[in-house]
Design brief:
Layout: H1 16-20, H2 30-58, H3 66-87, H4 91-113, H5 132-157
Helix pairs in contact: 2-3, 2-5, 3-4, 4-5
Length: 159
């Protein structure tokens, strides 16, 4: 579905009216603009929570990768993905945001409900409780992933 502007004078092919009848690009409609703002906001909220919690989790294992450093990596990925969506708003940008937010959500759910042992350099991160920051981050990741999927789907079908 392509929206068009009304023509000022449809009988003059070289007129401004003729130029105004061109289709409006789907990237510039209100829903896409909203998605380009809300997806980065969700990823930013996720990044802030991870950056705030990282020092406390790193204290448990000061050397090696540690959970705190994994939180910092998650925050950096969320910030970069959010900027990518904000600046480009393209299918690859939304796909990146979907992978970052969805992957973070899967990780928090797995480590909440399954006692996964340490795997190579990755520490055991089982934490069978929900607290405010963890819940806030999970909600932001779920919203970011869902909205990134909407953005990805909309751009796929607007061509």
């Amino acid at each position: 579905m392509k929206a068009t502007f009304a023509r000022i004078n449809p009988h003059q092919q070289g007129s401004v009216g003729h130029l105004m009848s061109a289709p409006i690009p789907q990237r510039h409609n209100p829903l896409n603009t909203t998605l380009r703002l809300v997806v980065p906001a969700a990823l930013s909220l996720n990044a802030v929570v991870h950056l705030q919690l990282a020092p406390y989790y790193q204290e448990a294992i000061p050397g090696g990768i540690g959970q705190g450093n994994l939180f910092r990596i998650e925050a950096a990925a969320a910030i970069l993905a959010g900027l990518y969506v904000l600046i480009r708003g393209s299918r690859p940008a939304y796909a990146t945001a979907l992978v970052v937010a969805g992957g973070g959500l899967v990780a928090v759910l797995v480590y909440r409900y399954i006692d996964v042992p340490a795997l190579g350099p990755f520490p055991a991160m089982y934490e069978p409780v929900w607290f405010f920051q963890k819940s806030l981050s999970a909600v932001a990741q779920a919203a970011g992933a869902a909205l990134a999927a909407v953005g990805l789907f909309r751009l796929r079908h607007s061509k």
